[in-house]
Amino acid sequence: AAMVNAYQMHALEFDCVHEAAVVHAMSAVLPCLVGWAEREGGIPGERLLRAVVAGIDVAATLGLCSRAPMRF
Fold first, then answer.
1. What is the value of pTM for the model shown?
2. Which are the contacts of 66, defined by CB distance < 8 A and separation ≥ 6?
3. Which end of the chain has fewer CB atoms < 10 Å from its terminal CB, N or C?
4. In the 3-class helix/strand/coil scheme, how is the chain assigned residue by residue?
């Protein structure tokens, strides 16, 4: 389900993009975390949101730090 959700987000352009980092982080981070929260059960919304923020921050930072030529 997480993979299908990620595919749907990316294919239908529901994910956000960080232009400078050349990354669509939300379509990778959010479905994984929702799947994790569903599997674990009882995860508070605040914890889930903190995990989303941390995941997006890491993905954008890695994209910004890359020295390889990246293009859309």
1. 0.76
2. 21
3. C
4. CHHHHHHHHHHCCCCCCECCCCECCHHHHHHHHHHHHHHHCCCCHHHHHHHHHHHHHHHHHHHHHCCCCCCC
**30 touches 36 (CB < 8 A):** no
pLDDT at 46: 96
pLDDT tens digit sequence for 11-70: 777 667 777 777 888 888 888 899 999 999 999 999 999 999 999 999 889 888 887 776
Instruction: State the Cα angle at 8 between 24 and 37, rounded to 5°.
Output: 80
Contacting residues for 30 by C-beta, under 8 A, at least 6 apart? 5, 6, 9, 52
CA distance 54 to 9: 19
> CA 18 to CA 50: how far, in whole Å?
19
